[in-house]
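Structure in, sequence out. Go:
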């Protein structure tokens, strides 16, 4: 290390070279997820897909260095220099790369400059597409009945235009061959192996966009590989698997049995609420992109709420009514500053629906009442029947709260309602999300759980054709808002997330039926 680096290095940061996995978000490693959550700067490229964005910390600086239509791609030297620059600023830098960072990921090159400058770094290996894409297609890359090993080979030409692969040596190994970056050289690969003596009827498969909802598997024998790719319009990113194991794809196929296989769901809920829905959809086989178009901002220094909590402590309220999971969160955050859940011991608690009830249950409170239908009017109607003259009701909720609740409650005689705004719902746009392009895809649906979510989406992406949005909605109000913007709407039978997921499945089936 040179002397003039010493003063800079006293405060230097660190770089983590992290494998993001092959596409499906859940295939990132636990360690990858942990270091991402802690990053100040994330440098990522095209193989890191939309769903991964929800794992990036909100306040981190996100730098895209990949190819995107029309944009200049950052050169490798520029990326190397960028990592160094950010580390020298004392930042925790995550360089996120598709698959495994060292498998055709140029990870080694990115570290050179850091080593020269004495920057600390760690490598977080990732699940590589070379093995995961075949696995998701039911192809075990080795199987002791068929081969003794697997070779992973690049199909990328050298700068002189030449594909520098020793096909003869490869053919002699008897290994399963997995080619990455091979779609533009598929004819050279096919002919090279045939010329090297590999049998024309050797099973082969192309796995396109492996592990994502758009995954396609094209099987062929070696002699017809190019023809199959052409007639099937196979596109990158794809891996090409050649060897007897590729013949197992049909028998070991497993993804098709997941109910939401092939469906992509755009979850628009606020960040802190989206993970439950996202994980449920992923378990059912969907690819999920979390695009929080609304955010919850609690009202700071809320004297009216503080005052109400004071009254609550004195036992003034007969009922506390909570109308959303965010409402519960914000209310308890304030309550816990000066008291705890026991403050509610003397009063009864109503929740508008299951989700709100579950949020209360996390805080040790079972709701005393849930309406028979999960909407403000029904809640007001049914609760008003339980009220007695003289009762005080506290409703801590969104500043844009639904008025039907109050209208119905006020029908009860001689009661006092403290309807207190505790949070604002603000619209937020995720600039990385290309809504027009993504939603034009026939397998991509937007999921809305509130009318404000629909409004947030429209305000985040005002310039697109909203009639192209396939919207699966919870609740009549949400659906009405989506229809107002011309979206194609499916409404869940019940106001529950599981019912929303069921409806998404039906919507996808309907569209698949009409396609076929
Ligand atoms: N480091 C990456 C590979 C980068 S090279 C890894 O370990 O996966 C880029 C090539 O990876 C693509 O051309 C393609 O062959 C392959 N690839 C990446 N993601 C893929 C996916 N989801 N499905 C199929 N192939 C993929």
């Amino acid at each position: 290390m040179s002397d003039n680096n010493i003063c800079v290095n006293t405060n230097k940061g660190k770089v983590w070279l992290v494998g993001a996995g092959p596409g499906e978000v859940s295939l990132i490693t636990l360690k990858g997820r942990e270091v991402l959550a802690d990053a100040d700067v994330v440098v990522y490229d095209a193989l890191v897909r939309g769903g991964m964005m929800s794992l990036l910390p909100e306040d981190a600086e996100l730098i895209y260095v990949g190819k995107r239509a029309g944009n200049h791609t950052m050169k490798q030297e520029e990326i190397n220099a960028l990592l160094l620059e950010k580390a020298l600023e004392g930042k925790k830098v995550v360089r996120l790369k598709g698959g495994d960072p060292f498998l055709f990921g140029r990870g080694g090159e990115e570290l050179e400059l850091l080593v020269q400058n004495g920057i600390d770094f760690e490598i977080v290996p990732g699940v590589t597409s070379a093995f995961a894409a075949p696995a998701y297609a039911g192809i075990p890359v080795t199987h002791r009945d068929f081969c003794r090993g697997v070779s992973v080979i690049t199909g990328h030409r050298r700068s002189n235009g030449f594909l520098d692969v020793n096909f003869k040596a490869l053919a002699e190994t008897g290994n399963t061959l997995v080619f990455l970056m091979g779609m533009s050289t598929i004819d050279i690969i096919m002919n090279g192996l045939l010329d090297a003596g590999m049998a024309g009827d050797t099973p082969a498969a192309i796995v396109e966009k492996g592990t994502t909802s758009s995954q396609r598997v094209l099987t062929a024998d070696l002699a017809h590989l190019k023809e199959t790719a052409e007639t099937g319009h196979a596109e990158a990113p794809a891996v090409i698997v050649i060897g007897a194991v590729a013949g197992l794809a049909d028998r070991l196929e497993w993804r098709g049995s997941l109910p939401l296989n092939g469906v992509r769901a755009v979850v628009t809920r606020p960040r802190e609420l989206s993970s439950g829905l996202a994980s449920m959809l992923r378990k059912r086989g969907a690819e999920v992109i979390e695009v929080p178009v609304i955010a919850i901002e609690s009202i700071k220094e809320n004297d009216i709420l503080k005052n109400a909590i004071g009254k609550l402590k004195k036992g003034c309220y007969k009922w506390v009514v909570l109308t959303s999971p965010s409402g519960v969160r914000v209310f308890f955050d304030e309550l816990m500053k000066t008291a705890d859940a026991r403050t509610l011991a003397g009063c009864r608690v109503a929740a508008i629906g299951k989700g709100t009830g579950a949020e209360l249950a996390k805080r040790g409170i079972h709701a005393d009442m849930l309406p028979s239908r999960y909407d403000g009017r029904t809640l007001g109607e049914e609760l008003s029947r339980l009220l007695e003259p003289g009762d005080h009701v506290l409703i801590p909720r969104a500043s844009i709260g639904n008025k039907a609740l109050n209208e119905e409650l006020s029908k009860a005689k001689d009661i006092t309602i403290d309807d207190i705004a505790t949070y604002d719902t603000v619209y937020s746009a995720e600039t990385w999300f290309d809504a027009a392009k993504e939603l034009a895809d026939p397998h991509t649906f937007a999921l809305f759980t509130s009318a404000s979510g629909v409004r947030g989406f429209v305000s985040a992406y005002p310039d697109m054709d909203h009639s192209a949005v396939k919207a699966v909605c919870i609740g009549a109000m949400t659906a009405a808002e989506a229809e107002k913007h011309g979206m194609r709407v499916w409404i869940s039978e019940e106001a529950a997330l599981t019912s929303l997921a069921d409806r998404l499945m039906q919507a996808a089936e309907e569209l698949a039926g009409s396609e076929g």
